[in-house]
Amino acid sequence: MRHLMSPLDFSVEELDKLLDLANDIEAHPEKYAHKCDGKKLATCFYEPSTRTRLSFEAAMLNLGGSVLGFHSADSSSAAKGESVSDTIRVISCYADICAMRHPKEGAPLVASEKSRIPVINAGDGGHQHPTQTLADLLTIRSIKGRLNNITIGFCGDLKFGRTVHSLINALIRYDNVRIVLISPEELKVPDYVRDDVLRANNIEFKEVEKLEDAMGELDVLYMTRVQKERFFNEEDYVRLKDFYILTKEKMELAKDDMIVLHPLPRVNEISVDVDDDPRACYFRQAQYAVYVRMALILTLLGLAED
Ligand code: NCD
Predict the structure, then answer these.
(1) How far is Cα of residue 14 from the mean position of the Cα atoms in its chain?
(2) Which end of the chain has the smaller Cβ count within 10 Å, N or C?
(3) Residues labelled as active-site residues
(4) What pTM, to 2 d.p., does this model score?
(5) pLDDT of residue 99
């Protein structure tokens, strides 16, 4: 039995297969409409979510399966003090696969150790968000046609942004990926990302503060929201929240075929008038997330080869 805690749980070859499957699902959804008949997905969300939970549920429903779950810690027995280990042992009696989001780093991993069904990390604190990474990889590969030979800029909250940490981990396995980290001093990537991931793997990267300075060299711009819920004080959040706003004017500095991604939700960091730019791909990214989660559910349930 396999779980998904980090994008590195799959080899590059396995990831290629998973992304191929997602593209096939996109092209021929009818082929997959009954693959999960009789199967159940549990979504255990101890933290708010719109896209991740609903796209997991849509993915399972598209496959013919059904869904059950809870969408906040308050509405589960966590409010009574139950541990994730106990909760997952019980959920294992009700469902065939579980997607779990938790504010504590490592909680889905703890759950997976006691689980009798595959557990998917749907975001653990500021740590990792591997299924968002799968959606990001599928979007880049589908639109740009490749995952190697790209310069990608990550902009915004690189300290608490778990989608950034997961995507960096995944991308460094492809050839000739250059990374530009665009953030204010206070929101730079954690040291372990800089030292143990980027430096340790000899990845070409630089850190800049101004988005304008990086714009012209990027193939992909990955915008992020300042993660309000992980700040220790409101004052810092208020000071940093509007540090970057991607506008039409700034888009003029970018290549004609650069793409803009954002895991969403957006707050102010991308002006709505950028949405009509053909390079704005964040809503397509949300659509790709459904196909890739369908591919993931099939893979973890051992139904991908049928
Ligand atoms: C992200 C998350 O939850 O980390 N959202 C998502 O799953 N698409 C990004 C965010 O909340 O800023």
Answers:
(1) 18
(2) C
(3) 51-52, 80, 101, 129
(4) 0.96
(5) 98
